[in-house]
């Protein structure tokens, strides 16, 4: 796969609930997890700021500039009455996030000192390649130790590189006449020349995907989670990416609920891969039950609060079967097709094709593989026809599970690599 197509492939994976982490790729089991993870994204172009979000960025901007600079700037380059009114009645995100960045700060000459006025602090935000540096690692080590309470022996440079330095590269492309960056990046926040925070981002066709954020404890009082989110939303708007992916929304985790405060946001249905606006109705359903698929909830006409009895639901026989399956958890799903409990076909994961669906919709034997320097099909391998797809130790069973997670569309486009 060439570099250009790689980023479209990763974008497709996000939309079928697969997430990259460094050089790994994983898919959460929403139905059977103790804490279901729902992919969440924000319509960046139509972002609606909240009062607490505006207060956070305004407080940071006041800290960076300092009272002395603001007093001098008000005297030397006063805002017009119309500008003051506009700023009071309308929050301009792009202006707010750039206002105190060093290249944007106004530095008029003070007639008294004959020198340009300077803010209390120099603040700089740069988008850099996701390369390892010792400076970045030191912020990571401080964050893991103080925020996640990890012991020094649990934090390593190799772990940091594996987790947050994917090495997938960076490219520029022209989309709709506009130059756009694609790839894995570190958005670095420097205060007075010192790295104090870093956002790990994937810039993909159509979205800015937030992977992780780290910050030093010296700036924890400034709520860098909110600051970085607004900075990343502005990146999505300015770069023409449209959507801002915020990773996972875990409703049962109180620390994750802040993501629902960025609107308009949507969560990905783990069964149909359709998007639903994260409204008060959806939040009520997430509070009422452990696992929610809005497509199923609509089809079965389920109320947002506690589910009534089967008699009250008034479902036909087909709907009753679907309702029963919707309620099942891992320990209620019996073995299927002869696989043991470690098989993806055995877990009842939403969004995973059944073995019957794979056999019907995906010609596994025609899947292209790279064997040493040759491109062949799986059916060209000696023994392929005789391998039992129900024997999970066989290559045929392995690729069937992989195909079940990727779906027919991706299988057609991917080439497997076999190291022999």
What does it look like?
The protein is of the alpha+beta class. It has helices at residues 3-14, 51-76, 81-89, 93-98, 134-146, 157-164, 224-238, 280-288, 294-299, 310-313, 317-327, 355-361, 395-406, 408-413; strands spanning 19-21, 24-26, 38-43, 109-110, 115-116, 123-129, 170-175, 178-191, 194-204, 207-215, 243-249, 265-268, 275-277, 368-371, 374-377, 416-418. Helix 12 (355-361) packs across helix 13. The radius of gyration is 25 Å and the shape is globular.
Name the features.
21% strand; 420 residues; alpha+beta; nine-stranded mixed β-sheet; three-stranded mixed β-sheet
The geometry reads as globular
Largest sheet: 9 strands, mixed
Distance between the termini: 20 Å
| N-to-C order of helices and strands | HEEEHHHEEEHHEEEEHEEEHHHHHEEHHE
Total number of helices:
14
Which stretches are poorly predicted, pLDDT < 50 over at least 5 residues?
Answer: 331-341
Beta-strand share of residues: 15-25%
Kindly state the number of beta strands.
Answer: 16
Q: Give me the secondary-structure category.
A: alpha+beta
Oligomerization category of the chains in this entry: single chain
State Rg.
25 Å
The helicity comes to 25-40%
Q: What is the average of the pLDDT values?
A: 89
